Amino acid sequence: MTEEHASVRYIVDDVPAAVEFYTTHLGFTVRMTAGTAFADVVRGPLRLLLSGPASSGARATPADAAAPGRNRIHLVVTDLDAEIARLTGAGVRFRGEVVAGPGGRQILLADPAGNLVELFQPGG
After folding, report:
1. Out of 57, 105, 107, 112, which residue is the most buried by the measure of CB atoms under 10 Å away?
2. CATH number of residue 109's parent domain
3. Which residues contact 6 (CB under 8 A, 6 or more apart)?
């Protein structure tokens, strides 16, 4: 049986920097890279396609939609405070403070290209 992944494409301006960010800080592993044009990294069922300026995925993006958006990948963690401490110690900067709601707690960080990543700890 083939392992299935849900795929998300992020447009990045520096593929090697994005690969290092996701593999070093967020537990992704590299499936494939194509130099500075493209990389395919995975974490569990999430396949994250990192497309640099030379990739077909980036070139297909309309100019008025080229900036990072409000969409984000959502990574569930078991101890949000420990993840914040670990990432802060590694020099990762967060975008705002922890927000709590009825479902749990979350915080946002950005990859080197400005794409958002949400770390979420479920409540209860």
Report:
1. 107
2. 3.10.180.10
3. 45, 46, 47
pLDDT in tens, 8-54: 999 899 999 999 999 999 999 999 999 899 999 999 999 999 999 88
**pLDDT band at residue 1 under the 50/70/90 scheme:** very low
For 42-45, which contacts have Cβ atoms below 8 Å and span 24 or more sequence positions?
A: 42/5, 43/75, 45/4, 45/5, 45/6
d(CA 40, CA 25): 16
Of 23, 29, 32, whose CA–CA distance to 45 is shortest? 29
The answer to whether the pTM exceeds 0.85 is no
In a domain, 1, yes or no: no
- Parent domain of 32: 6-122
